Amino acid sequence: MSKFKLDHTHEAARLSWVESANVSDCQFPIQNLPFCRFVRTGQVCVGVGIGDFVFDLTGAAQRKLVDVPGLSVGQLTQIGAGSTELRHVIFAGLEDGGGWASHSDLLYPQDSVEFLLPFEVGDYTDFYASIHHATRVGSMFRPDNPLLPNYKHIPIAYHGRSSTVVVSGSDVHRPSGQLKGDQDALPAFGPCKLLDYELELGLWVGQSTQSGQSLSVAESAQAYLGVGLLNDWSARDIQKWEYQPLGPFLAKNFATSVSPWVITLEALAPFRLPANLRGTQDPPVLDYLLDAVDQSNGLWDIQLEVLLSSAAMRAAGTEPYQVSTSNAKELYWTPAQMLAHHSSNGCRMRAGDLLASGTISGPAIESAGCLLERTWVGPEQPRRPVQISNQETRIFLQDGDCVCIKGRCQRDGFRSLGFGQCQGTIFAGKVRH
Amino acid sequence: MSKFKLDHTHEAARLSWVESANVSDCQFPIQNLPFCRFVRTGQVCVGVGIGDFVFDLTGAAQRKLVDVPGLSVGQLTQIGAGSTELRHVIFAGLEDGGGWASHSDLLYPQDSVEFLLPFEVGDYTDFYASIHHATRVGSMFRPDNPLLPNYKHIPIAYHGRSSTVVVSGSDVHRPSGQLKGDQDALPAFGPCKLLDYELELGLWVGQSTQSGQSLSVAESAQAYLGVGLLNDWSARDIQKWEYQPLGPFLAKNFATSVSPWVITLEALAPFRLPANLRGTQDPPVLDYLLDAVDQSNGLWDIQLEVLLSSAAMRAAGTEPYQVSTSNAKELYWTPAQMLAHHSSNGCRMRAGDLLASGTISGPAIESAGCLLERTWVGPEQPRRPVQISNQETRIFLQDGDCVCIKGRCQRDGFRSLGFGQCQGTIFAGKVRH
Fold it and tell me: Which A residues in the span 66-125 are in contact with B, Cβ-Cβ below 8 Å?
């Protein structure tokens, strides 16, 4: 069953018996129904977001309201290809007049539960799929030739670290590492001075493959369970000194934050970027990355923003500063192309694997998805600080800074969906030496 | 308790009631006692190698012969810091006259069991710790300046893929991918033509850390459970086109083979390279990588060899060709330095994480740990094929080729130890497109 097809679950007029889901600017109307995992009295549960609540799907499975493998033991890994049917069951249960109204004891206020990662991450892979990001970062090192020759042929990626993927709300320590300025004769060890965020989408693989098996673009488009927000925290000074010749390592692997919600492919179906708004991939991509449907609607229109607040701002009750706005439609490579490429050599995928888009930057400086870009003016010029409050500016992140990523889908004739948030606060590292 | 200390378990005169362990060239005398995991009647078990047998430690735990967390459920992740005490218990049980002689029904011939990975790998990290490898590969791209400026300061590494780490004996498919020769205007997709092995050590982390916690070199030296053999299969043509700017990805992540045996730090204690045979690290390393004990004995003297046989050679009964010999003492960075560096930014480690040394090459061409080096003569010169039999030569691997890595420790006055083998055979990829 296609996860892209519009059906009754996308109709804007449908309401839920959970009243808060029907409020106009609610992030989680019944048309959304994102998955999450949380802890209830010591037990790991799967939940679904509805209004201001989490509905406990593990409890529902234990009551035989839903019969999908894994839910009763708090796992999303066994849904496999059954996500569309599961959405229909949940929708029917939570819809106004639906049969689960008599199970309202399975509703928990979202602000009362401890969220977990949606999956125990098997492998985490970070792509580099925004051409605006790649071009702007490339121009810092190669002004005359910013984009490498392989960029428009290969969805470039590297492996990240799964042990340090953490759920939104987890504090993030400032890493220490080897630092060496251009003028320094030798490196020194100390706390990172150029700490940055990266605005990304997290793509959750929902189906497993065998070693040696590859997925076509069309298969890949269906193989995700859904999408969340992701912050690929980055230590730019560590990165600069360590990354040759094998790529980023300690500069990235101290923490990666993800939002707790998996916004399903089904919920995102109305928000695929229309073909007439999509640029073409030129030069044409190789056949294994080429799919007519994917070329026409392989990206989503997801509005993204990064909010930054200092400890002083929070103490003073000052609103967070919107440091960047961007959109998932800015990606050069589609999520389906990323997964097709990843599996093209027969690399085994496991349900719960996490792919990230790479920093999602647009062409304008205000849409730059990281401070490395956001405060860069040009070669040989000093960085331009961002004014985050009347009192404070930032070039890179300070201890106490809180970075919060939000996402939203909007389209005339459809209910708007929210992604929740991906948030983390920096504290001084407590690394022993 | 130090894992480096010599005690009665290292005395050469000690024998086992398992007769085959007492044969002079046996790989698994009672002084070795490597861990493994295997399947017995559908159950995952921890075992220990002794002579030609695996002794079933999970069965022993179920009979209360040994009381260490995790063994009874077939896991090595919970031994933690208790490995030395466990070794003493096993040694006493398996020694000539030891109490486990009446449990000989727990012995299984090694050739009768199905081996598993020693751990379910959490994260896999591949280092680049042989300076001979880094120099020789670097000289292919930068003849005048082969070693990058960071090499002698940072133990360079990148993240690998944990889903495709497989145990010795697993066949390995030839990956497909984007290939682009220097003369080609555009890349094409097809089977890798330059398939290679890489001779490495696999280092198994035995203890977990918290996020934000770092390990000193001295702590790192004790934090491994032990060591195995590892083949980091590599597609050189895929690697060349994809690796800029974020490092190797599909060129490496289709398969990584490891031997089933974890040779413990305790067993390796007599085989630490004497200080007088160890080169100094010059320039001196930063304090967080510097430890006097590690500088004097942080490497092991492990003899390594790579055997190559074609399908035709095996059909004809021809012995495998010894294509490389090397030694773990050729590493520039010690295993303790690798782990100290890895955790220096607070990156969380989990028991069962796998670190690999990187290709272990010596200075001589016969000690080159991969074909990329082994068949390279110099810049602008055609590669020199290796004659693997009277009929066949190799520049890179062909379908049907079997690569087998072996390891051996020897020292006067001590029993010699073997590492078993890490073996894999290439078959034509069955990647669909």
Answer: 122-123, 125
A173 touches chain B (CB under 8 A): yes
Residue window 394-433, chain A: list those with CB within 8 Å of chain B.
429-433
In 3-state terms, chain B is what percent helix, strand and coil (to 5)?
A: 25, 25, 50
pLDDT, tens digit only, all 433 positions of chain A: 689 999 999 999 999 999 999 999 999 999 999 999 999 989 999 999 999 999 999 999 999 999 999 999 999 999 999 999 999 999 999 999 999 999 999 999 999 999 999 999 999 999 999 999 999 999 998 888 899 999 999 999 999 999 999 999 999 999 999 999 989 999 999 999 999 999 999 999 999 999 999 999 999 999 999 999 999 999 999 999 999 999 999 999 999 999 999 999 999 999 999 988 988 899 999 999 999 999 999 999 999 999 999 999 999 999 999 999 999 999 999 999 999 999 999 999 999 999 999 999 999 999 999 999 999 999 889 999 999 999 999 999 999 999 999 999 999 999 999 999 999 999 997 644 4
- Interface contact flag, A178 B253, Cβ < 8 Å: no
Question: CB within 8 A of A380, min separation 6: which ones?
Answer: none
Strand partners, B324: B306
Say if residues A341 and A154 touch (Cβ distance below 8 Å).
Answer: yes
What element of type H or E holds A202? strand A199-205
Give yes or no for B286 touching A (CB within 8 A). Answer: yes
Q: What is the pTM of this model?
A: 0.97
* CA pair distance B335, A168, nearest whole angstrom: 34
3-state secondary structure (DSSP) of residue A417: strand
Within the 218-257 window of chain B, which residues sit less than 8 Å (CB to CB) from chain A?
235, 238, 241-250, 253-255
> What is the Cα–Cα distance from B346 to B72, expressed in whole angstroms?
32
Among the partner residues A177, A341, A432, nearest to B345 by beta-carbon distance: A177
Contacts of A112 (CB under 8 A, 6+ apart): none
Q: Are A1 and A84 spatial neighbours (Cβ–Cβ below 8 Å)?
A: yes
Residue A298 sits at the chain B interface (C-beta within 8 Å): no
Name the closest residue on chain B to residue A248, using Cα atoms.
Answer: B246
Pairing mode, strands A107-109 and A176-179: unpaired
Condensed to tens digits (0 to 9), the pLDDT of residues B275-308 reads: 889 888 999 999 999 999 999 999 999 999 999 9
Q: Do A353 and B161 touch (CB under 8 A)?
A: no
Active-site position among B10, B132, B133, B342: B133
Q: Measured between alpha carbons, how far is B34 from B409 in angstroms, rounded to an integer?
A: 13
> What amino acid occupies position B38?
F
On whether any CB of chain A is under 8 Å from the CB of B173, the answer is yes
Active site residue A10: no
The DSSP line for B198-252 is -EEEEEEE-S---TT----HHHHHHHEEEEEEEE--EEHHHHHHH-TTT--STTT
Q: A213 contacts in B (CB within 8 Å)? A: 430-432
Cβ pair A189:B162 closer than 8 A = no
Residue A398 zone, left/alpha/beta (φ > 0; ψ -120 to 50; rest): beta
Please indicate whether, in this complex, the C-beta atoms of B242 and A212 are within 8 angstroms of each other.
Answer: no
B164 interaction partners in chain A (CB closer than 8 Å): 211, 347-348
The answer to whether B231 and B218 are in contact (CB under 8 A) is no
Query: Cα torsion at A139, A140, A144, A148 (round to 10°)?
Result: -50
Closest CA to A81 of A276, A266, A273: A266
**How far apart are the CA of B177 and the nearest CA of chain A, in angstroms?**
6
